[in-house]
């Protein structure tokens, strides 16, 4: 695709300013970002207590796991930005990443509901918890 002075939509056609972008597009992004921030702060504020309580980790291990998760969450937007710019486009990337985020939240809720009566079930709970946590990241 050649670089020109005319703005183009995702199909390569000239974008009409009155019918593209604006608040119509911004509503989706604002709603997704608000929901993501609520979920992020809800998870991160309770994670140390959950890791040290039901999952039985030491405080040091829980803090290391929380820091690794926050570091991963801070880095991955750069990767998604590259994917959006180079391959998928901004709206497809938002839809895909939002779908992964919702799937991760569902799995995270499910991992908290799994009963842990034996070591095998506790290992399943820990594995499901960390898989869903990094799917959210």
UniProtKB/TrEMBL annotation:
The keyword Zinc does not apply. It comes from Noccaea caerulescens. InterPro entries: MFS_trans_sf. This is Protein NRT1/ PTR FAMILY 5.11. The keyword Iron does not apply. Keywords: Membrane, Transmembrane, Transmembrane helix. The chain crosses the membrane at residues 68-88, 95-114.
């Amino acid at each position: 695709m050649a670089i020109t002075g005319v703005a183009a939509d995702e199909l390569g056609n000239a974008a009409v300013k009155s019918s593209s972008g604006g608040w119509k597009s911004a509503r989706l992004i604002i709603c997704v970002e608000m929901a993501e921030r609520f979920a992020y702060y809800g998870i991160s504020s309770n994670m140390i207590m959950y890791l040290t309580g039901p999952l039985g980790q030491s405080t040091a291990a829980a803090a290391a796991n929380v820091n690794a998760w926050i570091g991963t969450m801070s880095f991955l937007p750069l990767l998604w930005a590259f994917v959006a710019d180079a391959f998928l486009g901004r709206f497809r990337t938002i839809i895909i990443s939002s779908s992964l985020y919702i799937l991760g939240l569902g799995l995270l809720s499910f991992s908290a509901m799994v009963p842990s009566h034996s070591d095998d079930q506790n290992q399943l709970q820990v594995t499901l918890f960390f898989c869903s946590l990094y799917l959210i990241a």
